[in-house]
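quick one if you have a minute, typing this from the bus. below you get a single protein, a line of residues and a line of whole numbers that encode the local backbone shape. could you go over both lines and see whether the tokens make sense for that sequence. anything you notice is useful, everything is just below.
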Amino acid sequence: ATTDVTRIGFTDYSLNTNVRGQSLKRFASSQSTLLCGDGNNGIDTADARYNRNSLPKHWRTDTNSPARRHLDTANYLFVDGHVKSYKPNAIQNTAPPSRGKPTFAIR
């Protein structure tokens, strides 16, 4: 590819830093662990390396945040490969994946 993925403005998504370099065996519940999702709030300088280890607290209440981009929801890709849209308050940062709630946390 001739596109420079390290260029600012390359992506509008963020990777869950907690999953980077992990074996699939490490996940107690891959169907509820976030891999990536809507993530650039227009202020951050996002390139292909853009990542987060949690949903920022202010994104839960800010009506202009990426967590509310699609009719008050955001799209998330999960470790098991499915995609689903959630409201920001449904996303957990520290809850164990085994509870079935979408989370940034891993086992």
